[in-house]
Amino acid sequence: MNHAIVPPRKVSELVVERLSERIACGEWPVGTRIPPEPELVAELGVGRNTVREAVRALEHAGVLEPRRGDGTYVRAADGLDAALVRRARTADAFHVLDVRAILERGAARAAAVRQDPDAITRLDAALAVQTQSRDADEDAFQAADVAFHAEVVRAAGNPLLADLYDGLDHALVRTYPSGIRRRHDRDVPGHEEVVAAIRAGDAAAAERAVTATIDAVRAQLVEAVADEGPGRRDRGAGAGA
């Protein structure tokens, strides 16, 4: 029997856990600024140096990002998220799109087989918001588009798949190759069709609908890269739609 004494954990490690929990549960979504240091000190009841150490640890992990003169922002949902995004950003844009296609096609097929009523309700809601956002500004459209695709993946009912996709979503959906303007076709085919196929339990049709969406995104990406000239293909990640 192991009778080793486990030393007490550092307070900064506990603060890291507390901050990470807020990020993971969505209280502090990716892209938002966390409360300023004095507020965290008062709220957590710890010293300023302890908060700084915890924040630095999350910065090193790629979860938080300091912006000079503007505070600290959430960069990724967790360490896995940060690692996947870093890797995706160094990959060929079309390779990243291929990964998105594999994940979403499999998820749509699984969701159609699973036929979970609650998941279908959430898909309907996400599709309604995404459809309404086609006349909104770019940020609103992007946010709704990300949420819709993530909901398709979650409808498969596999938490590990959902975590993997969430870790890649802003590389797979939000970002465009560096220097290329975002030119979303807001009527990309497949969105309504994939929800209808999942509701009908038609796995093959759900996969075809996702393929239609990915093919449309690929065509946009080819056109965008061509307009920017040679040498741009290997920069950045996939487009959203």
TrEMBL record:
Domain HTH gntR-type: from-to ranges: 9-77
Presence of keyword Transcription regulation: yes
Residues of the signal peptide: none
Database matches in Gene3D superfamilies: GntR ligand-binding domain-like (1.20.120.530), Winged helix-like DNA-binding domain superfamily/Winged helix DNA-binding domain (1.10.10.10)
Pfam families membership: FCD, GntR
Keywords of the record: DNA-binding, Transcription, Transcription regulation
A Gene Ontology molecular function term of the record: DNA-binding transcription factor activity
Name of this chain's protein: FadR family transcriptional regulator
Organism: Cellulosimicrobium protaetiae
